[in-house]
Amino acid sequence: MLSSYCVARSRVVTVAPSRPTARLEQFSRHLEPKPFLELNTPFSTERSARFVDEQGNVIRPKKQPAPQKIVEETKPQKVASDLKPHKIFEDIKNLSETPERPRKMSSQPEHPALLIPGPIEFDDAVLQAMGHFSESHVGQPFVNVFGDVLANLRKLFQTTDPASQPFVISGSGTLGWDQVAANLSEPGDEVLVLHTGYFADSFADCFETYGVKATQLKAPIGERPSLEEVEAALKEKKYKLLTVTHVDTSTGVLSEIQALSELVHRVSPDTLVVVDGVCSVGSEEIRFDDWKLDVVLTASQKGIGCPAGLSILMVSGRAIETFKARKTRPTSYFGSWKNWLPIMQNYEAKKPSYFATPSPQLVRALDTSLKQILSKPVEEYFAAHKAASQKVKKAVADLGLKQLASKPENQANGMTAIYLPEGIAPPQVLPSLVKKGVIFAGGLHKEIATKYIRFGHMGVSVTDPKRPDITKAIESLKESLGEVGYKN
Questions:
Q1: Does residue 237 sit in the same domain as residue 330?
Q2: In the chain, what percentage of residues exceed pLDDT 70?
Q3: Which residues form a coiled coil (predicted)?
Q4: Helices (H), 374-423
Q5: Helix ranges restricted to H, 256-313
Q6: Which of 65, 347, 393, 461 has the fewest CB atoms within 10 Å, counting from its CB?
Q7: Which residues contact 310 (CB under 8 A, 6 or more apart)?
Q8: What is the pTM (predicted TM-score) of this model?
């Protein structure tokens, strides 16, 4: 078993179990019979607490009014003397607002629309879920919610294979790289990293940190490696993994995942297909089972529409078996599936379990967001992003501007990377956009960072018809360019 190995300077040393067997058995009632991986830190389910005062009398909680009731009772009431003529006309105007341009985009405090490639704007209900009262991370109410989240992630990723496994761990998309490198590769393994921008460099660096040899197959800026190039690389040597960034946040380049996976399974069937979907899950279609993917990793703050702080993965049964067949212990502790796999299996079965403390508030926010996305066929969610993307890209062309991804088949649906006119730099445009109530991102690719900006169009900004975010952003971009002398 993995727990019996410890790697140190090329030696394999047998170590004693970290807990007495009797103690593990004492708390094993929440685990499946004879699990493949034992929990590092057993726990006991909390008892219902009864609070007493200094005299030993039971303190019973006072019944609290519902939150909505509190708002209604404490909301200041207007009187006739407060209603000035100009205020009356303003109220009448607000009553006649159209769905295309409401007075406020939500009940949130007024703020510029955040239209970067993540974090994105969040729905009110998602943010309200973040305000949930504190609760035990092993209490049954939270465990039930976590179980729902894992089940709904299967629906979003479109997998019904019981051998596949979703993971939700406190962290960011970068933690997904760590999990892949630490669990699916071992020091000395070869991996092929397809390069479409900045984030392939980072993923390759992550592998090198774990002693894995990463070979990058690079494409020119705005392009992606061709299938012919990938096939030739796979035939040159045996690779344990192939990784591809579905949408590179630095360039807006979209990779074609289905055809790529078919190629890998045909040419190098033992190679695992790993998709970095941090900037694609939610805004791009992903069919985990149909496309025979092995890992798709993402984060909570982009197309899924939840605040940052969660690393989310879907892992195939084939990848899990590869992990179990490791010759060495995983080279990360926090990111080790030795620790997390039984936790996720228990949570999905709605059984309390513990290795490291999750964020109940973030998980509840993710639960709310996933239920919103899945309230309609998931294809409608993808279609909304595609429609918004086409609107943005037409507007970019109408302004006489070019995208980093020049070919339509290379263009992402959740973001657009836009070259600025010659002689105009991001610092001349971005502050003006903020004044107009819109936030774009500057360039990220180190070779051309001063030449372009990035427009993110994901989540409620494109799925909520009452939000004017996209239309306002397009108008603001045109105005801001005009202010610095650009004439189309």
A1: yes
A2: 78
A3: none
A4: 378-398
A5: 257-267
A6: 65
A7: 168, 169, 170, 171, 299, 300, 359, 362, 363, 366
A8: 0.80
Judge if 238 and 282 occupy the same domain: yes
Domain that holds residue 357: 134-373
End-to-end CA distance of the chain: 66
Same domain for 341 and 461?
A: no
H runs (alpha helix) in 399-466: 426-435, 460-463
Give me the residues paired with residue 438 across strands.
Answer: 113
> Is the residue at 60 inside a domain?
no
Both tokens assigned to 307: 């605040």
Task: Quote the radius of gyration of the chain (alpha carbons, Å).
Answer: 26
Q: Identify the bridge partners of residue 243 per DSSP, sorted by sequence position.
A: 193, 274
Tens-place pLDDT, residues 364-396? 999 999 999 999 999 999 999 999 999 999 999
CATH number at residue 394: 3.90.1150.10
Q: How far is CA 484 from CA 239, 315, 402, 423, in A?
A: 50, 49, 18, 10
For the chain, the maximum distance between any two Cα atoms, rounded to a whole number of angstroms, is: 84
Helix (H, G, I), strand (E, B) or coil at 465: coil
Report if residue 92 sits inside a domain: no
Domain total in the chain: 2
Same domain, 157 and 288: yes
CA 66 – CA 424 distance, rounded (Å): 54
